[in-house]
Structure formats: C-alpha cells, structure tokens
Design brief:
This protein is of the alpha+beta class. The chain has three helices and nine strands. A seven-stranded mixed beta sheet has the order 2-5-6-1-7-9-8, with helices on one face. A two-stranded antiparallel sheet has the order 3-4.
Length: 176
C-alpha cells in the first residue's frame, strides 16, 4: 500500500515536475558500471546509444516534487478535501531528528521536497487564502480523517525545522 498525499486549492495550480536538476546526455556517453548484473551487461542496449537521457549529478538533484491534477477523476469525491481543485502530490515529505543523524541524505531530500511544496503553495496563494494537504493510504479514501492530527500551518510564520510529517488521515490547512 502507498501513503498518498493530496493538495486542495480554490483555484487551478500548475501541475508537473519541480525541483529536479539534470542535464541530457547521449546514452552512449554515460559511464557504465562493471557490475555483471547491470542491465547493459545482460542485454544489448546499443540501439539506445543516440537516445538522450536525463543525468543527475547527485541523489539530491534527483529529488523533486510531482503535482498531478486529479480533480476530474471519479474517486476524487471520496477525498476529505473541501477545495474544488485537487492534486496528487509526490515527494519525500517526512523528516525527523533521528533521520538527520541516521540518514543525512534522506533528511536533506525530505527538506528539499517539503520546501518545494511549501514554496509552490506560497507562490500560488494570495494573502488570506488557504490550501489543504490531506494524506491517506490508497485503499482508505473513504475512511474518516483523524481530526486529532488536524493542524494549521501559517506560511509567513513557518520555519522548517528538524521534524515534519504528512501523517495518515491528517488534514493540514495551509494559510497565507
């Protein structure tokens, strides 16, 4: 099962991919691994030699935010978001103090994705407006949210620290 995250807005938002840092290179020009189980060592991929592929310099460069419009999908009505425009969002949206120590790269990826999401929201909200973030497991769209987890995040005052989580059945109202 997958913990899905949704963003609700009063107006349409730009959808797409945000925050990735990459260049394009021909497949033939990319260094190949000597690992015998690597795909290029198992089968002939020479037909891809002139194909341009995305190349990321680091794991952090390969982290980003994905936003997809789900407003018109039939199951959208089951979501507990009150806003008329709804988007599925993907990224790494959880960080913790333990993660910072045990997996610094995962922590930095989480901070990047959370920052991208909040920045995107800030860029597309006027003062006095709000958006909603709701998370739930993919098979639990119709289940009630956990109102004890509900919270409000006021963007102008918010500073991202070492702890942030989009929890199952949590609704976060983000205001500006």
């Amino acid at each position: 099962m997958t913990l899905n995250h949704y963003l609700g807005s009063d107006r349409p938002l730009p959808a797409g991919s945000f925050g990735y840092v990459f260049s394009y290179q021909k497949y033939a020009d990319i260094p190949k691994s000597d690992d015998p189980s690597a795909l290029h060592n198992i089968m002939d991929l020479s037909h891809l030699n002139d194909t341009l592929v995305q190349v990321f310099e680091s794991d952090l460069d390969a982290a980003g935010l994905e936003i997809a419009d789900v407003t018109a999908l039939p199951w959208r009505q089951k979501l507990l978001i009150t806003k008329p425009y709804v988007y599925g969002i993907s990224g790494s949206f959880n960080i913790s103090k333990e993660m910072r120590v045990q997996s610094p790269l995962s922590f930095e990826i989480g901070r990047k994705c959370i920052g991208l999401l909040l920045s995107h929201m800030n860029d597309h909200m006027e003062e006095g407006e709000s958006m909603e973030i709701y998370s739930c497991w993919d098979s639990e769209l119709e289940m009630d949210r956990n109102t004890e987890l509900d919270s409000t995040l006021h963007l102008p005052d918010f500073k991202l620290g070492d702890v942030f989580e989009l929890a199952d059945k949590q609704l976060i109202r983000v205001t500006k």
